[in-house]
């Protein structure tokens, strides 16, 4: 929470929490970018609320990171609105003030032209990438507004900046994240809340395995011949963003492997 003091001759001074007193909530914390970010935050003494669907992974991560910081886990599906709000409402006092929100949970399902798309896949992408991000933000932001302090990082994608063949609904969901990020920054500006997006290109995570529904060979081909980014690379960038001085906000950042110029142009060394 931002503390405000009236000083000499009525001047107002703002004192912000040091990083080691802050609490970050990370969605999609059990793998990939979310997990790497949680691990890096813990090493830098940021307390954590970790959210995810896979309880066994949450428990394991809590055991690992509790050696460094205070960790609380919330096991829910971000698509389920009532579960989101009840989970956030259940936070104990030590974790109820969220200083940093990392909207990381997301997915891609399928890679078909629009006329062959699976409507269940469309529902999953829109429910998680768009509606889930909105639900968790709605649950967290009012207290940030009350405290007049906070930092929100929305994890987007280069797919939110351009559209590629067969990406249709996934790209649409990430374009929505791009618009929401911009809207958040406008709406929350009067309350001193920092809002920004990190939009990665090709990162080697479970992303392609999920997109291709467990077809590991097809997933591996996505990254063949390229030195792609790792989740740790993106976690480093997220940490850089949240550690800028209060008066500095990084609003929108695109990051790709050197070999990737766009979704269409990738320099593969085969």
Total of DSSP H or I helical runs spanning 4+ residues: 8
**CATH architectural grouping:** 3-Layer(aba) Sandwich
Give the C-alpha Rg.
Answer: 19 Å
User: Briefly, what CATH class?
Assistant: Alpha Beta
Percentage of β-strand residues: 15-25%
Structural class: alpha/beta
Rough shape? globular
Unreliable stretches covering 5 or more consecutive residues: 1-14
From the 3D structure, determine the CATH topology.
Rossmann fold
Map the helices and strands:
Blueprint: E1 3-6, E2 12-15, E3 23-26, H1 32-43, E4 47-52, H2 55-65, E5 71-75, H3 81-89, E6 100-103, H4 119-147, E7 151-155, H5 168-188, E8 194-200, H6 207-211, H7 216-222, H8 231-242, E9 252-255
Parallel strand pairs: 3-4, 3-6, 4-5, 6-7, 7-8, 8-9
Antiparallel strand pairs: 1-2
Helix pairs in contact: 1-8, 3-4, 4-5
């Amino acid at each position: 929470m931002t503390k405000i003091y009236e000083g000499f001759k009525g001047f107002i001074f703002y004192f912000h929490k040091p990083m080691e007193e802050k609490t970050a909530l990370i969605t999609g914390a059990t793998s990939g970018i979310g997990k790497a970010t949680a691990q890096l935050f813990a090493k830098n003494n940021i307390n954590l609320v970790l959210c995810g669907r896979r309880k066994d992974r949450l428990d394991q991560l809590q055991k690992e990171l509790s050696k460094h910081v205070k960790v609380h886990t919330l096991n829910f599906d971000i698509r389920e609105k009532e579960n989101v709000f009840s989970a956030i409402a259940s936070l104990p006092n030590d974790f109820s003030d969220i200083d940093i929100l990392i909207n990381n949970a997301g997915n891609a399902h399928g890679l078909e032209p629009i006329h062959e798309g699976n409507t269940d896949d469309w529902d999953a992408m829109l429910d998680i990438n768009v509606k889930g991000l909105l639900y968790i933000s709605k649950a967290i932001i009012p207290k940030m507004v009350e405290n007049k302090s906070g930092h929100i990082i929305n994890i987007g994608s280069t797919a939110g900046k351009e559209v590629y063949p067969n990406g249709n609904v996934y790209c649409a969901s990430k374009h929505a994240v791009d618009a929401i990020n911009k809207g958040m920054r406008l709406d929350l500006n009067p309350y001193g809340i920092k809002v920004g997006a990190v939009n990665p290109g090709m990162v080697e995570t479970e992303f392609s395995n999920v997109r291709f529904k467990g077809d590991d060979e097809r997933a591996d081909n996505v990254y063949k011949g390229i030195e792609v980014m790792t989740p740790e690379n993106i976690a480093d960038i997220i940490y850089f963003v949240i550690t800028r001085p209060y008066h500095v906000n990084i609003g929108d950042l695109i990051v790709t492997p050197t070999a990737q110029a766009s979704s269409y142009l990738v320099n593969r060394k085969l």
